[in-house]
Amino acid sequence: MNDPRFHLALRMGDNSLILAQQNSKWCGHAPTLEEDIALANVSLDLMGHAQMWLGLAANIEAKGRTADELAFLRDTQEFRNALLCERPNIDFATTLVRQYLFDAWHLEQLGLLCAGSDISVVEIAQKAFVEVRYHRQRSSSLVIKLGDGSAESHTRIQNALESLWPYFGSLFENSDNDYILFKAGISELPASLRTRVVEQLSADCGQSTLTLPDSLFYHKGAVQGHHTENLGYILAEMQYLQRTYPSSNW
Amino acid sequence: MSIESPLWEVFIRGQHGTAHRHVGSLHASDAETAMNNARDVYTRRNEGLSIWVVPSNQIIASSPSQKGSMFDPSQGKIYRHPSFYDIPKVVKKI
C-alpha cells in the first residue's frame, strides 16, 4: 500500500483498538462501580475511533477489505499500534497510568491532525478530539490524586509510571511514511510531539508527589510491526470468534 | 475505595429550562471526582445538560417516624386545590 494515509489511519486505529480491548477486560472487575463504568465508557469511545480509522484505512486501500477484517484478520506483525497500548493490565494503577500516558499523547496528536490538510483525516480527528479531551482530564485527575493518596496508591502509580515509560516512547517513533505525511502537510512527525507531551506530564506530576521518569530510552520497532509477546495473547482472545467462525455476524 | 469514599447525590437537568432531578447516588473521594463519576455513570446516554453533585450527608431529610405529624394534616383538605373556580372560556390552556 503506497498511500501513506493508509499507514496513518492504521496506526491511529490500531492504537485505539488494542487499548480499547485491554481496558474492556476490566468490565465487571474494576475496583468500584464508578470506575468500572468509566473505563467501559473510555473503551467504547476508543472502539468508536478504531472503527472510523480502520474504516478510513480500508477505504484508502480499496481492496474490498472492511474495518472488521482489518481488526480481526491481521496477525501481530501487521499491527502498527504503539507498544504502550499492548502492555498487560497488571493492576488498576498500571491500567490507569497506561491510559494517562496514552491520553496525553492522543490529545496532542488529534489536535495536530485536526489542523492537517486531508479532510477525511481531519473529520475523524475532530470527532475523536471532543471525547479524548475528557479522557485526558479524567485520567490526569485520577493519577494525580492516587499519586498523592495513600502510601500504597503512591507506590503503585509511581511504579506503573516507571515500568511503562520504556514503552511510552513507542508512540513517538518515526517511520518512513511519517516523513511523506509530514511533507504532504497531513501530520506532524510523531517524534516532534514528544517534548510538548512530556512537558504536560511534568506539569501534572509537578502538582503531585509523583516523579516523572526522565530516561529517553524506549523499545523501538512497533512501526515495523515488531511487537511484544503480549500482543499475540491479546489478538488470540480478540480474534478468536472471527478465526473460528469466519464471517460470522452479530 | 468504595468503602471509605463518601457518598454523593446526583441531580441532572435533562433539557434547557427544566429543573434538576435526583437520579441516584455514587461514591467519590472529592467533589471533582464526584462530578466526573456522575458524568460517566449518569449521562452516558445523553441524559443531561447540567449536573449537580451534593454530599449526601449535607441533605436534611424528614424523619419517617414523624410522618404522621408532618403529612397527615394535609389530608382531606381539597379546598387547597384550585378545583372550585370556573375557568373562563377564552383561557384555553392553564
What would you say this structure looks like, in words?
The complex is a heterodimer of chains A (250) and B (94). Chain A is mostly helical and 250 residues long. Chain A has nine helices and no strands. Chain A has helices at residues 4-24, 33-61, 67-72, 92-114, 119-147, 151-168, 176-183, 194-206, 229-244. In chain A, helix 1 (4-24) packs across helix 7 (176-183) and helix 4 (92-114) packs antiparallel against helix 5. The model of chain A has no long low-confidence stretch (mean pLDDT 96). With 94 residues, chain B is of the alpha+beta class. Chain B has a three-stranded antiparallel beta sheet with strand order 2-1-3, with helices on one face. Chain B has a domain at 1-57: Ubiquitin-like (UB roll) (Roll), CATH 3.10.20.520.
Can you give keywords for this protein?
heterodimer, A: 250 residues, mainly alpha, Ferritin, 9 helices, 65% helix, 0% strand, B: 94 residues, alpha+beta, Ubiquitin-like (UB roll), 3-stranded antiparallel β-sheet, 3 strands, 18% helix, 21% strand
Please report which band the strand proportion of chain B falls in: under 5%, 5-15%, 15-25%, 25-35%, 35-45% or over 45%: 15-25%
Mean pLDDT of chain B: 89
The share of residues in helices of chain A is 55-70%
The residue ranges of chain B in which pLDDT falls below 50 over 5 or more consecutive positions are none
Shape of chain B: flat
What CATH first level of the domain at 1-57 in chain B would be assigned? Alpha Beta
What would the CATH topology of the domain at 1-57 in chain B be? Ubiquitin-like (UB roll)
The appropriate CATH architecture of chain A is Up-down Bundle
